[in-house]
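haha ok so turns out i had the wrong file open the whole time. this is the CORRECT one, sorry everyone. sequence first:
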Amino acid sequence: MNTLLSSLRLPSPFEQVKSLSPLQADLIKTIALTAMLADHINTILLNGRSAFLYAFGHAAFPLFTILWAVNLPTDAEKLRKRAQRLWLWAVATQPVFWLAFMMNGQSWLALNILFAYAGCTQLLSWSARWGMSGVMAGIALLLLLAWPLTPASYGIPGLVFCLLCMFVGSVIEAEGSRLVLALVFMAMGWLNMPPIVTGWWEDAIVYDFLPTLVVPLLVIGAVSALPRASGTRLWPRRFFYHAYAGHLTLLGILAVLPMNR
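then structure:
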């Protein structure tokens, strides 16, 4: 009976991403980049007027986070270097992040999403180096980041989602990860939900909950079902950092042009 249930169990999105070919992984990254661009165009240039772009954009963060979590190294030295690279890009991107969103009244204190990934990776790096003392130091760091991440980069819900994904990604073969996987889905679905859902419950489900939870899972499932092509990758290594900073620079310039004022 247990064998039958195991054979019927659908693979988690983390297992699916883990088994992707480099070309398939790049395809998911392309969809996530497109969703991120759609979200930022809608926010920065269209002042949130497009319901479709608003909903589709919600798929970007969950997709990027699952890819980030699954591909985290386990070696302490590699984790240290990964954290350093994320911090460098987070700091370097912050000026253009501010430029892109300042026309929407965004505070200059708000941090971009790379700080969330950098903070969580730093926690894992310190944990690998110093054990529980490193975990406590990492949690303290994330608590310091939570407030400046809240205005534009999900704040505490985003950090919790990153940590859960990081944990599931590291125990992907463990039976006990199923409970955490359920928590991941709950955290994912509520990332973009308004704090108080009253008369506009149906709109929140259609434009916030479903795009944030269902669309990323459908994308991962559809891409993982494709034949494992062994062709050339679509993007060079670390392309995301350049694409993230580059599209914010372009949108920031467009946002401050006189015709967009």
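The chain has one domain: 13-260.
again sry for the mixup
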